[in-house]
Write a structure and sequence with these properties.
Blueprint (H helix, E strand, L loop, with lengths): L1 H7 L8 H12 L6 H14 L13
C-alpha cells in the first residue's frame, strides 16, 4: 500500500518525505474509523494550523 501511495504521489519533494509518510499513516491507521470522520479530522488540522506561503511575483520589478 505504501509503494502504491508513493507512486501516485510521485511529484513530492524528497525533503517532505516525512510529511507524506505521516499522511499515509493517518490514512492507513484505524480502518474501523469512518472515512468522513478522517476527512473531518484532516480538515480541522489544515484550517486550524495555517501556514503562510511566501512567493515572489515574477511580474514585479
Amino acid at each position: 500500500m505504501l509503494k502504491k501511495f508513493l507512486r501516485v504521489h510521485s511529484g513530492f519533494d524528497r525533503d517532505d518525505l516525512q510529511d507524506y509518510l505521516n499522511f499515509f499513516s493517518f490514512i492507513a491507521s484505524n480502518p474501523d474509523q469512518e472515512t468522513l470522520e478522517k476527512v473531518n479530522i484532516l480538515l480541522e488540522l489544515v484550517f486550524y494550523n495555517p501556514k503562510k506561503l511566501r512567493y515572489r511575483d515574477k511580474n514585479r520589478d
